[in-house]
Amino acid sequence: MSLQHTETAGDGPSIPRPERTPGALRAACAVVAPQLLAAYDQAKDHALAEAVEHGSLKPVHAYLAHWAALIEIERHPETARAYHRAEYLAQVATTPDEAREHLVRASTIYRNATRSVHAE
User: Fold this and answer.
1) According to the 3-state scheme, what is the secondary structure of the chain?
2) Which residues contact 50 (CB under 8 A, 6 or more apart)?
3) Above pLDDT 70, what percent of the chain?
4) Residue 90: its pLDDT value, please?
5) Alpha-carbon torsion (75, 78, 83, 88), positive or negative
6) In sequence order, what are the residues at sequence separation of 6 or more whose Cβ sits closer than 8 angstroms to the Cβ of residue 113?
């Protein structure tokens, strides 16, 4: 079954979708996933350093797109639980097929979140 958006029944967003700016995404992260703030800041710093090094804004756009998708997942508590569960189960899987099954689930949630963010 393929979801067309990140919401599941009864899984409404806990906060409005933030703008795709560093400040708005960081503020949203602080509310829905404060445990990810250090990773967010590190990703932003890395993207800015790459942008300067390569003279291109592509790393900044990629970081913003990635974090917009992650925040989209985290805005929906049930979706976030399913995403994190799939990631965890992939890590503890005992066979490649089992790991693949869980990774497909996690990547489907991530892709749907990306589509939702870009559909606005």
Assistant:
1) CCCCCCCCCCCCCCCCCCCCCHHHHHHHHHHHCHHHHHHHHHHHHHHHHHHHHHCCCHHHHHHHHHHHHHHHHHCCHHHHHHHHHHHHHHHHCCCHHHHHHHHHHHHHHHHHHHHHHHHC
2) 59
3) 91
4) 97
5) positive
6) 6, 69, 70, 72, 73, 79
Calculate the alpha carbon distances from 13 to 6, 48, 104 in Å.
10, 29, 23
Residues 28/18, Cβ–Cβ less than 8 Å: yes
For the segment 5-55, what is each residue's pLDDT rounded down to a tens digit? 444 446 789 999 999 999 999 999 999 999 999 999 999 999 999 999 999
The owner of tokens 């976030």 is: 80
Q: Are 78 and 11 contacting, i.e. CB atoms less than 8 angstroms apart?
A: yes
Q: Which of 49, 44, 53, 50 is CA-nearest to residue 23?
A: 44
Query: How much is the mean pLDDT over the chain?
Result: 92
